[in-house]
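dumping this here so i dont lose it again. seq + smiles for pyridoxal-5'-phosphate
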Amino acid sequence: MTGFNTKLVYGKGLNNLHDNCTGAVNVPLYQSTTYAFKDIDGENKYDYSRSLNPTREYLEDQIACLEDAKHGFAYASGSAAIHAVFTLFKPGDHIVVSKNIYGGTFRLINDYLKNLDIEFTQVDTQDLADVESAIKPNTKAIYFETIDNPFMKVTSVKHIAEIAHKHGVFTIVDNTFLTPYLQQALNLGADIVIHSATKYLGGHSDVIAGLVVTNNEEVADKLYFCQNAVGGILAPEDCMLVIRGIKTLSVRLDRHIQNAEKVLQYLDSKTDEIKHIYYPGRAGDETDEIARNELKGYGGVITFELSDNVDPKAFVNSPELIWLAVSLGSVESLIELPYYMTHAELPVEERNKVGITPQLVRLSVGLEDPEDLIADLEQAFAKAKKLTAVESAK
Ligand SMILES: Cc1ncc(COP(=O)(O)O)c(C=O)c1O
């Protein structure tokens, strides 16, 4: 059983439905904290659900097989998964990290990990010379998001992994925006891949979850240790929701991409209202080729900068169908202003430095009819467009 879509539906295989002796077509929800021992000297694979739960195990096997990985781990959130990966490091270690990362990761690094004496250097991961020159004798890893947030620029997993291997450090990729359907980063050379399964993998805005995969045995042992010792594991009901979401991942993502293409065509026509559109493959530089070579598709998130003649707050307050909300990758379309919402964790100077202005809008295109989304955006532009002096004098 090798097809990607078959794996979405069945995980590692039909007989991976554990001790399902009822014929149920879904993996059972094992709502049990503890498991009886047959006798005091016997060995139990399952003994306590923080250590291992069969429903979680199904999901962990499933994400591993979708990523072509040996080991998968499920955590209580994408942030818990990122934290688990950072527990691989100790005081005095140095990590090279992309300057455009999820705001919560920025907060974890700056307000927590730096206090543990883990050192970070932020670089532009599209600039390979910048990445390589940041590597020091105590560097242990390079950490980045393949598609950066909110500018949707693509970093080459292959090129970064080549640098990392040359210097004997790990390549760690947060691939939340792509999922294994659009990129299998381990096969491109990454050592560890992280997903916030809250986004496309779950896909329905009804579960917070994080997943990590690796082929490295030592890393896997440490990630399991973190699950068991720190305890930030994903609860079985939440595992069920992610398992269910994953079954339709490819179908949903195909439609997200189709809808995004239609919305992009519309946004392209708004030359008076939009200064710039950010979407993979449209940067107009060498990263477009990386996108074509390393990604199977570009997902449903579009960022654009409004012209000064559009009031950004009025614009995002106006949609009647699209929700004003953070997050992405769900069936419903979501719109937000990164400056005030997802990236508010970044100090103002940092936001200015990377170009996150109050005019920047991030749109996660959902599965509604694209014509309805376009009509909703059109009426939002009409409400938010500032009148010129001549127009207001009329
Ligand atoms: C790229 C990325 N990584 C990680 C996270 C954190 O995931 P979670 O919200 O599941 O903790 C997010 C959340 O928005 C994200 O966008």
